[in-house]
Design a protein that fits this description.
This protein has about 220 residues and is an alpha+beta fold. Strands 2, 4, 5, 6, 7, 10, 11 and 12 form an eight-stranded mixed β-sheet that branches. The chain is globular and about 50 Å long.
């Protein structure tokens, strides 16, 4: 987790929900379902509120000489504040990644998998904690932080995104003179308390005409 997520919202919707936010429609992703290597919408912050930007999903640290074959799309939050190299990114380059849901695949008998949509109760947007960096070759890239799964997620995966509420989001985007490691750890530990709902995604069946055409 997390390898795909959904953002079904317009720039106007997000600007109304996250005030004050300056967001142009051209900054919105071109698709509703985000995958690794896609250009994502991210929020950073300053003294006046949220700032919208874009980053490619798959973190390439500025300390690397070249881009790895498989950039990190997720990073565990546990111990991240003391991890070489990535702890520096955590302490200076934090972002929020807005989503309306994320996806997991439930294992079924016979090796089949069922796509499941995970969202917040009452349809509220999710704010996923992320970190970003700027590489001279790869540009701005990001990764989503993860925590142990809560009860709603445990049957699907042992990990889930670090989902932040309003108060935690303000902490996340603040510029700290010295990053408060203990407060970050407490937020990560409490992230599993968020209320999530899980539903099956009904995949469209292949059209007989299309099946014939591509057989």
């Amino acid at each position: 987790m997390c390898r795909r997520y959904e953002l079904k919202a317009t720039a106007k919707d997000l600007s109304r929900h996250f005030q004050p936010l300056r967001l142009a429609q051209r900054q919105m992703p071109g698709a509703e379902e985000m995958q690794p290597t896609d250009s994502l919408l991210i929020f950073t912050g300053n003294r006046t509120g949220y700032l919208a930007g874009n980053a490619r999903w798959g973190l390439v640290g500025s300390f690397l000489d070249r881009e790895p074959r498989s950039p990190l799309i997720n990073l565990g939050s546990e111990g991240l504040a003391t991890t070489p190299f990535y702890s520096k990114i955590l302490k200076r380059n934090r972002c929020l990644i807005p989503a309306t849901a994320f996806f997991e695949w439930q294992a079924l008998a016979g090796g089949e998998k069922r796509k499941m949509r995970v969202s917040q109760a009452r349809g509220k947007p999710l704010l996923l904690a992320g970190i970003f960096d700027r590489h001279p070759l790869a540009g701005t890239t990001c990764a989503i932080l993860t925590v142990p799964a809560n009860a709603a997620m445990a049957s699907l995966n042992d990990r889930m995104p670090l989902i932040l509420g309003r108060a935690e989001s303000a902490f996340w985007l603040n510029e700290h003179l010295e990053f408060p490691v203990e407060e970050f750890a407490a937020i990560a530990e409490g992230a599993g308390q968020c209320s999530l709902q899980v539903e099956q995604v009904e995949e469209p069946e292949d059209s007989p005409q299309l099946s014939f055409a591509f057989a």
